[in-house]
UniProtKB/TrEMBL annotation:
Protein name per UniProt: Phosphohistidine phosphatase SixA
Pfam families registered for this protein in UniProt: His_Phos_1
Origin organism lineage: Bacteria, Pseudomonadati, Pseudomonadota, Gammaproteobacteria, Alteromonadales
GO CC field: cytoplasm
Stored CDD domains: HP_PGM_like
Record-level Gene Ontology MF annotations: protein histidine phosphatase activity
UniProt xrefs under NCBIfam families: sixA
Organism, scientific name: Pseudoalteromonas arctica
Gene for this chain: sixA
Sequence segments annotated as region (Disordered): 1-20
Amino acid sequence: MRHGEATPMQADDASRNLTSVGQQQAEKMGLWLQATHTPTALLVSPYIRAQQTAEGVKKHNAFLFEETCSDIIPEGNPQIAADYLEILIAMHPQCDTWLVVAHMPIVSYLVDQLSIGNMPIFNTGAVAVLSYDESRHQSQYLSIHAPANI
């Protein structure tokens, strides 16, 4: 998931907040996730706008596992992020649906790392859905959903 709409770019990118639209996007997608996928694990960027997006989603979803991860910041390395996510999945078998809340461009690159050849562009608040086969360490890209389209 890409974070919701944020305030304009500034010197300290990590401190940008969600706008009121971004907060609404996070809550709307939280309701959608609850109704369609029921995520049980959450991996979120330490940047304020991603943390605020995760809080909006958490209003409608209960997570068995939550972690803030500095590998999923905008300039993060998608291979490291994908490897770390796969390790977490293996370590937490009780969690069958994972939500990663991050930023462009890393969310697109992460999807490509998990499902080679698929690099969707995320609108703010959008969620890409992948099906992960842990035994093969491969994902299949299924779809992307934006707040404006649900």
